Amino acid sequence: MAIRIDRVVTRGGDGGQTSLGDGTRLGKDAPRIEALGAVDEANAAIGVLRAALGAREAERDAALARIQNDLFDLGADLAVPGEGGARLRMIDAPVLRLEAEIAAMNAALAPLSSFVLPGGTQAAAAAHLARTLARRAERAVVALAATEKLSPAALRYLNRLSDHLFVLARVLNDNGAGDLPWVPGENR
Description:
This protein has helices at residues 31-52, 58-78, 93-106, 122-145, 152-172; strands at residues 17-19, 25-27, 116-117, 180-181. By secondary structure, it is mainly alpha-helical. The protein has one domain (27-105, 116-177): Up-down Bundle (Hypothetical Protein Ta1238, Chain: A). The strands form 2 sheets. A two-stranded antiparallel sheet has the order 1-2. α1 runs antiparallel to α2, α3 runs parallel beside α5 (152-172) and α4 runs antiparallel to α5.
């Protein structure tokens, strides 16, 4: 699939509409555009997370690069309504890869005895922020799926992604040793 972008400024959206991959024009506040935007936000947050990783985190960076590409695939799926055809659609293989990565990371972590606060190292905090934006994207895609048929793998992927980012945040917090436990109000 070759993509060529000759111009960034097109003025096509000046009236509050944008085009989907099949040429359909939608308002920029349409649920499909909201879902696309939320997926884009999550992808950008993962870019910030990658920038926060240390030089010794090449394996984690490679996994996050795959995830960013997966999110572009998901965006391509969302950008063309309908089923089948020659267009890119989310499949279960990336979901299964996320599950395997979660299991591998989680194997080295002690079980949680409390909820944890988002934070810790800079990279862990970035992972938590990316996790919340992945959840926002999931909510937007779920809202779209309530009115339009979508790939079930798209919903599964976003659900697993937020789990992946949560476990990764714990790994980046010295394998959970640097997690910040929640202290309920009555105990502070």
